Amino acid sequence: MNRTIGLEYGDWEFRGWRSHYGVRRSQNADANKSPILLIHGFGAAMDQWRDNIPALAAEHTVYAIDLLGFGASEKPPTDYSIYLWVEQVLSFWQKFIGVPMIIIGNSIGALVAAIAASHHPEIAAGVVTISLPDIEAFNALVPKWLQPLERAVKAIVNAIFVKPLFYLFRQPWMIRFVLKGIVYCDRDRVDDQLVEIIAKPARDRQAAEAFVCLNRSINKPNYSPSLTQALSKLQVPLLILWGSRDRLIPPSEGKRLVQYAPEASLVYLENAGHCAHDDRPERVNHEILTWLA
Question: pTM for the whole thing?
Answer without folding.
Answer: 0.92
